[in-house]
Amino acid sequence: MAKEDTLKSAKTFTIADAQLSLWVLKKSAGKFSARSVNVTAALENALRNIVVGQLAKTTEVDEYDLLAQTNETSCLHVESDETTFDELKELVDRPAVEHLISSTKQLDNSVGYLVRLRADGQILYCVKRTDDAWIAKKAINVVNVVVRGANELDVVEGRTLTISNSFDFIASGTGILVLRKPAFETLLSYRLTYQNSFENLKRSPQFSQIFVDMAPLVAHVGTNTMHLRRMAVIEQRGHYADAQYMERLRQVNAQKQWGITFDPQGRIIATEDSLRTIMQVLLNHRLYSELSLGTFDVPSASQVGN
What we know:
Blueprint: H1 3-11, E1 19-28, E2 31-37, H2 41-56, E3 60-63, E4 74-79, H3 85-92, E5 112-119, E6 122-129, H4 136-139, E7 145-148, E8 152-155, E9 169-172, E10 175-178, H5 181-187, H6 190-203, H7 205-208, H8 215-221, H9 225-237, H10 243-256, E11 261-262, E12 268-269, H11 275-283, E13 286-288, E14 295-297
Helix pairs in contact: 6-9
């Protein structure tokens, strides 16, 4: 489904008349589990309003990219079969009444919750990553209070949980609208994908042979999520494997004095001072503007013509 069609499908969904169910999500060893929760009419109405409000302010959609970001009114589109969402979808498409929680302890340590809306044969899935209020060991260290009247706080007996006024991603049809990228990637294990991608890249002879020593790069990337994303894009684009690209890089680096050093065989000598530049040029994110006549490092790039 095209990105515009996914956004239109979600925004025109009949939320007011849809059948609603709420599911709490847990994750262990990379596998989801889901249990349904009965909700009061007041909470159900609040959840519908949150979905309506979230979609009303989402007016722009771009294709998902490992380095792309969202703002207050935008989202990113990705096909669900490119993620692990279908595993989660299969769990919450079961009859909710047959999978109700049996005790409040089953809410503890949930990684997220999902609001499922069904109307006219179509389904909207709205997912939110939970905050610390859902973690049992952290709940022990707080006292739950509520405002009584205009100027008085009172203790609330029992456990209180937090329902956010936003969602992290919404699935409609075969597409997913990513509203908050870090939470989306955490829930669907994109970080693990980045780590695996970097491991594959380190083992690639085509990649390792462009360096005298990869150790400084490996240390620089470490477990930093943004660096791992960048390395995943570097692997995906494969400029390092293009001999002509690498030759042009050596030539332009010398002309522009970008500070990357090469050995006599043309291999990159990675240093702490040059690693940021090395990653930018392997991404092809150091670009020249014909308008301002300046060279810029950009967070992401889409080709617009020849």
